[in-house]
Design brief:
By secondary structure, the chain is of the alpha+beta class. Helix content is about 40%, strand content about 25%. It has four domains: about 1-130, NusA, N-terminal domain (N Utilization Substance Protein A, Chain:P, domain 4); about 135-200, Beta Barrel (OB fold (Dihydrolipoamide Acetyltransferase, E2P)), CATH 2.40.50.140; about 280-345, K homology (KH) domain (GMP Synthetase, Chain A, domain 3, 2-Layer Sandwich); about 350-415.
């Protein structure tokens, strides 16, 4: 059994890289417990473990006495002589005896085995915890082996990783057996072993993908200054070049967009805007709110607030679908942004819209009213304005404002 125990621990040294002195200490502790169980807590003993030779030796030290009062710490001279001991020992000397494992009995040996197995499991848990703790915010590649309602279980080097729903890219479809990439977001200890949480929705996953696909970022020539992301929909990344000869945005996008497209594909076609970082908050805000064209930006750096003025036809671009563009710009810059809409002069619209084309939006009744009052195009209605439109019987102020808003929104869609 001695050799088997040492061999199993030596295997852990080879495969897991555990310090063999640590393992030897564990064996000494377990067998020390064995001695104390049999000979009492006050027993004097020594456990010698030789990991290289595959050997465990247990020695018990007792005082030689005439009459034994405590057999755990004392032994009689007569007993020693009966054993045929060849050493010249006398009362008062210490007698060191080598204990064979079999003398402890089956129950204590079973207890020792259980203790060793528990220690091995604890060591293995610590090894896994330390391994993934060192991989925090790094990308790992694993295979999906179970898809559950609230999370996905991924196999990585025979270890279980958890991809919770909150860390998944929304609407992304996962299949059992397919390979998946994610970053290690959190590692925590639990009674059943380490819990390793991975993420595809975290900003750091996008950062690591940029480092993989763009050598200039990996080499430190280009810095990622900030990331704002709504996973699966859109992201904005602010970059800055440390070399004036290298265009940071161009390097990130790559020839014909090949570099950025590789990242977009990995993120299930998440749109990624790469912008040049600037220390000037006005310039930085302007770049962050692209592709909208702004007329004016007023910045309060102390309060981290900005007021942005834009033509009405640019507001929808500025805000983005469901407000995603302005939300990302605020996350990227750290500024709270307020939008002021400035109406665009009607004469600046490049094309007019026939009123017949807006019949569905306006409704048949309103359309007939406008046509009967000689309004044939959208620009004619806008140019007339609220005062002229009030002359039409059946139109009140609320209805007129609704008509103008419908027509203006159509022009904004045309501009987009």
């Amino acid at each position: 059994m001695n050799a088997d125990i040492v061999e199993s621990f030596s295997q852990m040294v080879r495969e897991k890289g555990v310090d063999k002195d640590v393992l030897a200490g564990i064996i000494e502790e377990i067998f020390g417990m064995l001695v104390r169980k049999k000979y009492g807590e006050d027993a004097k003993y020594d456990v010698v473990v030789n990991m290289d030779r595959g050997d465990i030796e247990i020695f018990l030290e007792r005082e030689i006495v005439e009459e034994v009062e405590n057999p755990n710490t004392q032994i009689s001279l007569e007993d020693i002589n009966n054993r045929g001991n060849e050493d010249e020992l006398d009362v008062g000397d210490d007698f060191v005896e080598k204990l064979e494992l079999e003398t402890f009995g089956r129950r204590l040996i079973t207890l020792a085995k259980q203790g060793l197995n528990q220690k091995i499991r604890e060591i293995e848990k610590d090894i896994v915890y330390n391994e993934y703790n060192e991989l925090l915010n790094e990308i790992v590649v694993g295979d999906i082996y179970q898809i559950r309602k609230s999370d996905i279980l991924v196999n990585h080097n025979r270890n279980e990783l958890i991809l919770p729903r909150s860390e998944q890219i929304p609407y992304e479809r996962y299949k059992k057996g397919e390979t998946i990439r994610a970053i290690v977001k959190e590692v925590r200890k639990s009674t059943s072993g380490p819990v390793i949480v991975i993420s595809r929705a975290d900003n750091n996953f996008l950062r690591r993908l940029f480092e993989i696909e763009i050598p200039e970022i990996y080499d430190g020539i280009i810095d990622i200054k900030a990331i704002a992301r709504e996973p699966g929909e859109r992201a904005k990344v602010a970059v800055e070049s440390q070399d004036n000869r290298i265009d940071a945005v161009g390097a990130c996008v790559g020839m014909k967009g090949v570099r950025i497209h590789a990242i977009v594909r990995e993120l299930s076609n998440e749109n990624i805007d790469v912008v040049n970082y600037s220390e000037d908050p006005v310039v930085y805000l302007q770049r962050s709110l692209a592709p909208a064209k702004l007329k004016k930006i007023e910045v309060n750096t102390a309060a981290k607030k900005a007021v942005v003025t834009a033509d009405s036809d640019q507001v929808s671009l500025l805000v983005g679908r469901n407000g995603v563009n302005i939300r990302l710009a605020m996350k990227l810059t750290g500024y709270e942004i307020e939008i002021l809409r400035e109406e665009k002069p009607f004469e600046e619209y490049e094309e007019d819209i026939e009123l017949i084309d807006l019949k569905e939006e306006l409704g048949a009744e309103i359309y007939e009213l406008l046509i009967n009052n000689r309004y044939d195009t959208a620009l004619e209605v806008l140019t007339a304005g609220p005062e002229k439109l009030k002359e039409i019987e059946g139109l009140d102020e609320a209805k007129i404002n609704e008509i103008l808003e419908i027509i203006k929104s159509q022009f904004e869609e045309e501009e987009e």
